[in-house]
Structures are given as structure tokens and as C-alpha cells.
Amino acid sequence: RVKKKKKKSSHVGLLMVLLCTSVLLCVCVCDPVSPVLQPRGGVERGPDVIRAAGLVEKLQAQGCAVKDYGNLSFEEVVPDEPVGRAKRVRAVGGANQKLAEAVSRVKRDGHTAVMLGGDHSLAIGSIHGHAAALQSPLGVVWVDAHADINTPLTSPTGNLHGQPMSYLIHELQSKIPALPSFSWVKPCVAAKDLVYIGLRDVDPEEHYILKLLDVKTFSMTEVDRLGIARVMEETCDYLTAKVKKPIHLSYDIDAIDPSVTPATGTPVVGGLSYREGVYITEHLCQTGLLSAVDMVEVNPARGRTEDEVQSTVRTAVDVLLGCFGRRREGNHPADYRMPEP
Ligand SMILES: [Mn+2]
């Protein structure tokens, strides 16, 4: 019964790929890097190395019309003193506001949006802008070694890239202090519309929040127990149980094992294999519900060798291609005709 349902929607997924334009919006919101101490954190180079690996050409080759909006640029905010423990609040808040407006525009034009990061704090603006444009509930699939759901008050480090989900969840609104440059942020995701995949490094405070809100999580333990195919079936059944909501995929490359994707800021052993990482996107593509994708935390400066950087970048590209119809069984254009002798 489930199989039959899936097969039907896979057809819709294929149509989506052929008819929709996918849009690249390259963004870098890099929160933890002090401009004085560390002028180049490296993660801001993520979008350009992913482009250089041929993402646009490869998407076009599989039938996507791609519009590259280029890199969003943001002004440095000086001074940007910590607010409590939270670092670079004004810069990250302002950048995300700009990003949210850009993503809203892209969605109103009817495109599937792709945001290349940059660190994961960009999900604040990305998801916010996506939800604002749709004006209907959104399902969020968060693929990550980390939950990124600390509030500014629970965060042990003060890094905003460990907090984005907390600003977006309705149920946490009363726990979020007012921060400069964040007054525009309105919660837009219900805790029941969020699914995590790949968790294996969750702070105690975050674990408390996940249990308190009864958030659906597939940690690496569940991936081991159920297998990735079952995890994806359950993820999509859960998110679409009542109504088929558009899906926002927020994909942190550190969800995948550091043996495959080492060039990232906070690698954690015991992650998804390359195959599991790609399978997630193949499955989501087939639902026909994928509406926006973040690809974050690719950091070429964190690769110790060129091979490490290339392995990370190639995997990020393959994950994105999977979102837009690439299948490992092979693909061919709908209008292909065999040459006649
Ligand atoms: Mn993350």
C-alpha cells in the first residue's frame, strides 16, 4: 500500500524537475568568526567552491533551468559586542533579514530555492523567508549531526549557528530574549512539523527541548536500527499525515561522516554514509514537495588536503543533484530519441 502511494508521487517529482526552475542563492552568514581575530574563517568560501565543482552545469545537464542569483553580500557591523553570550548578533540578524527577503522573492516567483552557505545560522532567514512567501505551514527536514536548537540563553558557546531552530519554533517563543537586529524574526514552524535526521551530538539543554516539544528525531541510532529507507518513509508519512505541506530541507554537510566530508567546522564521527546522505535527497525529490534546500557548513579551509576538500564538495554537489532528480540508476531526458541507422 505504501509502495503504491510512493510510486505515484515519484512521477510528480519527475515533472517538478522538468518544469520548475531551481534557483541558487548563495549566502554566507558566518557567525562565529571574529573579523579581527580571524579574517577568514573559510566557510564563506563554500558557495564558490560548490559552484566551481560544476553544480549549475550538472543541474542543467539533468534538465533543470537554473538561475544563479550570485552571492548576497552583507555589511560588517562594527562594533558587534556579544549580547549575553550570543556572538555577532547584529551582523547575523541583519544578514538573515536580507536573506529572508531574497528567499521570499524567489519563492513568489515560483522557483525551488537553493541556499548555499555559509554556516547554519542562515537557516533563520532561509526558513523565515520561505514560510513568509507561502503563507501556509511548512515541513522542515533538518539533516545534521547537531540539533541547532539552543536558545541564546541555553547555548554553551554563544554561536548563533547552534541556535537557528530556536528562533523559528512557535513553542519556544517565550524562551527567546529580545536581541538587536532580530525584531523582524517571527516564529513560523510548529514543533510537530520538524524532523531531524542524523543527530549524534546534542547538548543536554537541546535534548531537554527536543523531549519537551516532542520533536520527531531520527538520530544515528534510529538510522542504524531502521535503515535509511524506513527513516525516509516515516519522515514523509509523519510530515504529510494530515496535509501535504511544502518541505524545506536544511542540510548540514556534517550530517555525513567526516571520513567522507571532513572539510567542515564541527565534524562528528559516526555519521551518515555517502549512500545514506544521497538517499535522503532521492527520496525527498520523489515526494514532489521539496520547495527549498539549504546546503551549509562546507568549509574548504577545514580540509587538511585537497582530496579532503574535493571529497566534501563533491558530496555536497551530489546531495543537491539528488534533490533535483538525479538517480543512481541513471537518468535520460524525456525527449531523448535513439539515433536511427
Ligand atoms: Mn547545523
From TrEMBL:
<comment type="pathway">
    <text>Nitrogen metabolism; urea cycle; L-ornithine and urea from L-arginine: step 1/1.</text>
</comment>
<protein>
    <recommendedName>
        <fullName>Arginase</fullName>
        <ecNumber>3.5.3.1</ecNumber>
    </recommendedName>
</protein>
<dbReference type="GO" id="GO:0005634">
    <property type="term" value="C:nucleus"/>
</dbReference>
<dbReference type="GO" id="GO:0004053">
    <property type="term" value="F:arginase activity"/>
</dbReference>
<keyword id="KW-0378">Hydrolase</keyword>
<dbReference type="GO" id="GO:0000050">
    <property type="term" value="P:urea cycle"/>
</dbReference>
<dbReference type="GO" id="GO:0010121">
    <property type="term" value="P:L-arginine catabolic process to proline via ornithine"/>
</dbReference>
<keyword id="KW-0479">Metal-binding</keyword>
<keyword id="KW-0732">Signal</keyword>
<keyword id="KW-0056">Arginine metabolism</keyword>
<dbReference type="InterPro" id="IPR006035">
    <property type="entry name" value="Ureohydrolase"/>
</dbReference>
<keyword id="KW-0464">Manganese</keyword>
<dbReference type="InterPro" id="IPR014033">
    <property type="entry name" value="Arginase"/>
</dbReference>
<comment type="similarity">
    <text>Belongs to the arginase family.</text>
</comment>
<dbReference type="InterPro" id="IPR020855">
    <property type="entry name" value="Ureohydrolase_Mn_BS"/>
</dbReference>
<dbReference type="InterPro" id="IPR023696">
    <property type="entry name" value="Ureohydrolase_dom_sf"/>
</dbReference>
<dbReference type="GO" id="GO:0005829">
    <property type="term" value="C:cytosol"/>
</dbReference>
<dbReference type="GO" id="GO:0030145">
    <property type="term" value="F:manganese ion binding"/>
</dbReference>
<dbReference type="Pfam" id="PF00491">
    <property type="entry name" value="Arginase"/>
</dbReference>
<feature type="signal peptide">
    <location>
        <begin position="1"/>
        <end position="30"/>
    </location>
</feature>
<keyword id="KW-0835">Urea cycle</keyword>
